[in-house]
Design a protein that fits this description.
three-stranded antiparallel sheet, 6 strands
Length: 381
């Protein structure tokens, strides 16, 4: 076992146990544990760098990768908090673990410059598997029938398919050029960034003004698009994108309501609670739009010249009128809802995520890398 593993493994285990316990019991991940762990990590790496420096054996590429990996972890931690996938505490905990886990623990699936990509894969593989089991267990056959119908209706909607294809065609080219320029050749990271950026671009109302010109330029400059190999790979990418989008809009929200949300009256709302519905304000709405909202089990109220719409969230929506974050409702939010006149809400039943993060770290250490590549290696034997 390498010296950094000996020094940092006890810190990793201690941080995981303490934060998991407190997240389950109190619903909080306290900054003092994260800061303490980060200080330990920085001191350990600084000591190792000084040791090798005086021995004349400094690996400058390793030091640069420490920095790029930390920047990657910060981007993922902040990004998933911004999209309400986890809390700020979860994001900071992931950043701490990304720093603490020595690169030697990734040796069976090492991603150059961003080794902690394997860590995030393991965390969400475990988390999604456990949540999927809960959802399947608590959902009825009727729920599945309605949900699957809605998902496939969304999946095969011609306008959505066309927009996804145009967006991916443009974004994938930009990502490929950027990665080639900086010398990053990892295919998995390129696809992950393509799907993330495409989902952001596609959600914008006027994204076609940006993507269509890029498509025309690529058709003129990039000869590789006129091959069967490109066409097959691109169609697979479009199908993956459509599945992710339609699932986030239909499959997960509807089925997840049975496990991850509870109907509460306005009087029962408290600070820190997270709505499983989005609240929007519009100056004008058509009768057809109101009918569509009602079909989605939503509600429209007119108050002081504005229309307020309450409906189930679709995926990771950010257009919440309240400006709600993953940290939950504030007293100001609750007072605003009282004024509008909504009577009841679907409130998310939060699940402590620190244990999932810690389990992902443990899995990474045991497998020395990503569970996906580990399973792939088993199937190849």
């Amino acid at each position: 076992m390498e010296i950094l593993e000996v020094i940092l493994l006890p810190v990793i285990i201690l941080l995981g146990i303490i934060t998991s316990y407190e997240d389950i019991k109190y619903g909080k991940i306290r900054n003092k544990w994260i800061i303490s762990a980060l200080i330990c990590g920085f001191l350990a790496y600084l000591s190792a760098i000084c040791w090798y420096f005086f021995a004349g054996e400094v690996n400058w590429t390793y030091i640069l990768e420490l920095l790029t990996n930390l920047l990657f972890a910060v981007a993922v931690g902040f990004g998933l908090w911004y999209y309400k996938i986890w809390t700020a505490g979860d994001g900071k905990l992931f950043i701490a673990f990304a720093l603490l886990v020595p690169f030697s623990f990734y040796k069976n699936s090492y991603y150059a410059w961003t080794p902690s990509l394997a860590l995030i894969v393991n965390i969400f593989t475990l988390g999604l598997l456990i949540m999927a089991i809960l959802v399947v267990y608590k959902s009825t056959l009727k729920d599945w029938r309605i949900t699957i119908y809605e998902m496939f209706a969304n999946f095969f909607r011609p306008t959505k398919l066309l927009k996804s294809a145009v967006t991916l065609f443009a974004v994938f080219w930009v990502i490929t050029l950027l990665f080639s320029w900086i010398g990053l050749t990892n295919v998995l990271i390129r696809y992950v960034f393509t799907l993330l950026l495409s989902s952001i671009v596609e959600s914008k109302n006027k994204s076609l003004y940006f993507t269509v010109p890029l498509v025309l330029v690529r058709l003129f400059l990039d000869d590789s698009v006129y091959t069967w190999a490109f066409l097959k790979g691109f169609l697979v990418l479009v199908l993956i994108m459509r599945f992710i989008t339609s699932s986030s809009r239909s499959l997960f929200p509807r089925l997840g309501q049975n496990v991850l949300s509870k109907k509460m009256s306005l009087k029962e709302l408290r600070e820190g609670m997270i709505l499983n519905e989005t609240i929007m304000r519009k100056d004008k709405v058509s009768p057809e739009y109101i009918e569509k909202v009602k079909e989605q089990n939503g509600q429209v109220i007119k108050f002081k010249g504005h229309y307020y719409i309450k409906r189930p969230k679709e995926g990771f929506e950010l257009n919440d009128y309240l400006g709600g974050e993953s940290e939950g409702l504030t007293l100001k939010h609750i007072k605003e809802l009282k004024k509008i006149g909504f009577k009841d809400f679907q409130v998310a039943q939060t699940v402590p995520f620190a244990p999932f993060i810690f389990l992902g770290v443990v899995l990474t250490i045991m497998l020395r890398g990503s569970i996906i590549l580990f399973l792939k290696s088993l199937s190849a034997q």
